[in-house]
Amino acid sequence: MLELSNITKSYTMGANVVYALKGVNLRIEDGEFIAIMGPSGSGKSTLTHILGLLDVPTSGSYQLNGNEISHLTEDNLAILRREEIGFVFQQFNLLPRMSAEENVGLPLLYSESTTGSKFPKELLDRVGLGPRAGHHPNELSGGQQQRVAIARALVNRPRMVLADEPTGNLDSTSEHEILTILKELNAQGITVIIVTHEEEIGKQAKRLIRLRDGVVVSDERQVGSTVPVVQSTPPAPKKVEAKKGASFFTELFAHIGQGFRTLAGNKVRTALSMLGILIGVASVVAMLALGKGAQKAIETQLASLGSNLLILHAGAVRVGGVTQQAGATTRLTYEDSLALKAAIPELNEAAASVNGRVQVTWENKNWSTQLLGGASSYARMHSLVPEIGRFFTDAENLSRARVAVIGATVVREVFEGRSPIGEMIKLNKVPFQVIGILPEKGATGWRDQDDIVVIPVATAMYRLLGKLYLDSIEMEVRSATDVAKAQDDALELMLKRKRVPLSQKDDAFDIRNMADIQEALSASSRTMSTLLAAIAAISLLVGGIGIMNIMLVSVTERTKEIGLRKAIGARRADILFQFLAESVVVSFSGGLAGVILGWLITLGISAVTGWSTSVSPESILLAFGCSAFIGVVFGVYPARKASRLHPIDALRFE
User: pTM for the whole thing?
Assistant: First the structure.
């Protein structure tokens, strides 16, 4: 039962106030069949909108089932609409991208957070359209579309059906079918209110209300009609409570499904809006892959230099204010390496080394290469244990054995692919036996790390290079936390051993910390990766602006749809959530395609240029996270704009 008391509705147009309704008083009992008639401008549409809770009166009282509703919020009105009222519109207002069954089930999205119920199909059977349930509106006649609209009005089991010119666009046969259905609904106890301008339709109602200039001029019951008997406790029809038991995720998936359907209806526009996100995500993935690959390459190359290494060189001394090479007092000897290892407990190893250039000859081949004289621990310290053959031993070093381990470049240039193991080569005309091949390390800039020959340090000093002093001593520290202490202790020990004056101790020795070099190079690599990702992220920003633009256009194009959704029970939050879901679907789909494209780009770059690339899970998650975040951020404004549309203004939008 509903009751209107002194209802007025006015509109301000500039300096003028126009009254659409002027003190309307009505009482409508449950189960009535009412026709509201009047000429254009009489206020019947405004009265219909107020009765249907699509609009609120300027003043007066409106009670529905004994509850005052004239001052309820828009969301509360939406909940009442989906529980109490079913709408049948003159223009049908069916969504073209949905089938008949899906259109009928649309209100369930807002009452049950699902459109998967079997009830819409049952309703279509009741209105004679069961076989046409899978057809879209453009495949149905006008009468069939109106029957779909009636089934949609009944899907939430309302107490009242409000039909606005339900036969205005139909032929006489369809008009008769629709009126028959409405009469059958009334016979089942549902209150039916028809707004019409046709006398023959109005005369078929049990009660006829006429309006003119916003005032009820007549309210009469037709001949033979009776006032419905109102029970003291009327049986409550089966109703769906608002969102009863619906979880957040159920509602989320329902809206995402709606988002996919909507976007699939505008494939070209959706693809264009995804393009910006796709390019942005692909750029981020590709740039991060390049940066990550470069960082891994640096780490691999640095690992070959050894971890936790300290490299001791003889420094320079100042004589008479002039910097000169270190004298005999600061030159490094083999005994110094033994003393360092014995005196500093933090060291695993202290290995002597010398360097030089040699000419390699074998048969008719010769090659100029780098020579390194090292200790037997050199291979382990630098992760260079030969994969083919072996490294020399301490005994071979002490005996100054003429054995050599050669790099891959020397193998290619001198032996041209043949196995060198066991072969005799000459280094500066001194014969050496090849006992192993070093693992490949690759070239870095101007230096080829595989163009090298390694021999025992004692052999290099006394049998080949004629050196009496070492070029450097490499010290391997047990733990990274002990590097600083080991460095200080090594420097202090060498100053004592060489008896360096206080005035010259700062320049007497130079200790290089490989950990510092590694950290500096890694930091540079991370900085470059971040810079590349930041540049690529600009594409994501542009893509987000594109999504906002497309969603704003979508809101304008779908204004009447928004009005329909609100009329069948959608709250502001439902509309907001739906448009946000569509925005996230666009950005997520674009992000997925962007990840795939970015991965393909990295493969292409790696294949063409030979650069090292690495697509990490972190970069994929970052790209996805950014795309989803942009979808939400840039979708909020259009979604909020859509949610704040008034249902009446939206339904009237052209």
Answer: 0.61
